[in-house]
Design goal:
Layout (H helix, E strand, L loop, with lengths): L1 H12 L8 H12 L5 E6 L3 E7 L2 E11 L26 H17 L4 E9 L7 H11 L6 E8 L7 E3 L3 E3 L1 E10 L3 E2 L10 H11 L12 E10 L6 E2 L2 E10 L2 H21 L3 E10 L2 E2 L2 H13 L4 E3 L11 H6 L2 E7 L19 H16 L1
Parallel strand pairs: 3-4, 3-5, 5-16, 6-15
Antiparallel strand pairs: 1-2, 2-4, 6-16, 7-14, 8-12, 8-13, 9-11, 10-12
Helix pairs in contact: 1-3, 3-9, 5-6, 7-9
C-alpha cells in the first residue's frame, strides 16, 4: 500500500497535459519493472502502455484501463506533493486511477492468474477525447484484443468505498459544436455596404438553446453555449466574420445523433436566411458509456462479497468519459468508486484523490480477475 501511495503522490506532483505524458509513462515503466509483466508495450497512440500478465491456460483477455493526463487548472491545495507545474494538476483523479491499476501489477506478481491474460492499459489523452479511440486500433494491431474491458472513475459526493453503477449508461455522450459564419466587412459608418453576421449570431444562439425543449428526444439532452465572437475590437469596422461554440450532451447515443443533425439543420437555415456562408465542425466527441449488463451483474455480486455499498444512479452522469469508445467496441464496464459525501468535486482547485481508497479499487479489480480467470 505504501508504495502505491508514493507512486500516486509522485504522479500528482508531476502532472502532464494530454499528449505530453512522457515523464508519467517513464515513472509507470519504472514501477512496473519491479513486478515483471510477461509483456510490456510502450508508445501506444502516444505515451500509452500495456503491461500483460499471462496465465498458463487459455482463457479470456481482461483489460483494465486507466488514464494518464492531467488538467490545465491551477491546484489550490497546500500538500507536500502538490503539483509542481504551474497551471497543471491532477484534479480529476487520474493519478489515483493509475495507482489502482498499478496495484494490480503487485497483486498479479504475487498471485498469478490460472488462465487467460490481464492487460493493464495506461491510456493517454483522455481529457481531450482523443486517446481511447486511437488506442483501440493499436491494441488490436498488437494482438491485445480484449474480451472484456473495465475502468473505474472516482466519484466525490458518494459514500467512501461505495461502488456506483449506471442503469446501463454510466456517462453521457457529448461533443463540441463549432460554427463559423462568413459575411462581408465594411466601414462601421456604412454597414449597409457589408454583411454583418450579428443578427444571425443572435438567432442561432436563441434557437440552439431551445433545441433541448423539443419533445422528439427519448431522454435528457442539453445545449450549453461556451463561446461567441463577432469580428475584432475595431470601432471603425462592421465585422464580416463570427464564431459560435457550444457543447451538446445526451444520455443516449441516438439522441446525440438527432441533436447533432438538428443543430446543423438549424444553423444552415439561419445562415441562408441572412445570406451568410457557414462552416460547422464537431470536436472532442464522446459517445455515451453504455455498460454491459452481464458485467454489471458480476460487479454487483463482487460488491456483496466485499461488503461494499452499491449505488445505482437514477440518471447517467452528465459529464463524458472517453472510455465510452471501449464500450462501443467491446463488452465493457465503467463504474464509480465513491470518495466521500464531502469530498471536493472533480475539476476543482482543491480536489485530491484520497490515498486511503487506492486499495479499495485494487480489491474490486482483483475480484473481477478472480471471477473470470481464477
Amino acid at each position: 500500500m505504501e508504495e502505491l501511495i508514493r507512486l500516486r503522490r509522485e504522479l500528482h506532483r508531476n502532472p502532464e497535459l494530454s499528449g505530453s505524458e512522457r515523464a508519467t509513462a517513464k515513472r509507470i515503466r519504472f514501477f512496473l519493472s519491479r513486478y515483471k509483466p510477461h509483456e510490456l508495450y510502450s508508445g501506444i497512440s502516444g505515451e500509452g502502455m500495456a503491461a500483460v500478465y499471462n496465465g498458463p491456460e487459455e482463457g479470456p483477455t481482461l483489460l483494465f484501463r486507466c488514464d494518464m493526463d492531467a488538467l490545465p487548472i491551477q491546484e489550490r491545495n497546500t500538500l507536500p506533493y502538490s503539483s509542481s507545474v504551474p497551471g497543471v494538476a491532477h484534479l480529476c483523479g487520474h493519478d489515483g486511477h493509475m495507482a489502482m491499476v498499478s496495484g494490480l501489477a503487485v497483486r498479479l506478481s504475487q498471485n498469478p492468474i490460472k488462465k487467460g491474460r490481464v492487460v493493464l492499459f495506461y491510456q493517454p489523452e483522455e481529457e481531450n477525447g482523443k486517446g481511447a479511440e486511437k488506442s483501440i486500433d493499436r491494441l488490436i494491431d498488437l494482438g491485445l484484443t480484449p474480451t472484456y474491458t473495465f475502468a473505474i472513475h472516482n466519484m466525490p459526493k458518494y459514500p467512501a468505498g461505495s461502488l456506483v453503477v449506471g442503469r446501463n449508461t454510466f456517462s453521457s455522450a457529448s461533443k463540441g459544436f463549432v460554427i463559423r459564419l462568413f459575411g462581408k466587412e465594411s466601414h462601421a459608418a456604412y454597414p449597409e455596404s457589408g454583411l454583418n453576421p450579428a443578427l444571425a449570431v443572435s438567432d442561432i444562439i436563441r434557437e440552439l438553446l431551445t433545441l433541448q425543449q423539443e419533445n422528439r428526444f427519448e431522454d435528457f439532452v442539453l445545449v450549453t453555449l461556451i463561446h461567441a465572437r463577432i469580428g475584432e475590437v475595431a470601432f471603425g469596422t462592421s465585422p464580416g466574420y463570427a464564431e459560435i461554440m457550444a457543447t451538446l450532451r445526451a444520455f443516449h447515443n441516438p439522441d446525440m445523433e438527432l441533436l447533432s443533425a438538428k443543430a446543423i439543420e438549424l444553423v444552415e437555415a439561419i445562415a441562408a436566411k441572412h445570406g451568410l456562408r457557414v462552416e460547422t465542425q464537431f470536436t472532442e466527441e464522446f459517445p455515451a458509456s453504455v455498460c454491459d449488463e452481464e458485467l454489471t451483474s458480476v460487479l454487483e455480486g463482487i460488491a456483496g462479497e466485499q461488503n461494499r455499498k452499491l449505488i445505482s444512479m437514477e440518471q447517467p452522469n452528465r459529464w463524458s468519459e472517453d472510455f465510452a469508445h471501449f464500450t462501443v467496441a467491446f463488452p465493457s464496464l465503467i463504474f464509480g468508486l465513491g470518495l466521500g459525501e464531502n469530498h471536493p468535486d472533480l475539476h476543482t482547485p482543491h480536489y485530491d484523490f484520497p490515498d486511503s481508497l487506492i486499495d479499495s479499487g485494487v480489491d474490486v479489480f482483483e475480484g473481477l480477475i478472480r471471477k473470470y480467470l481464477g
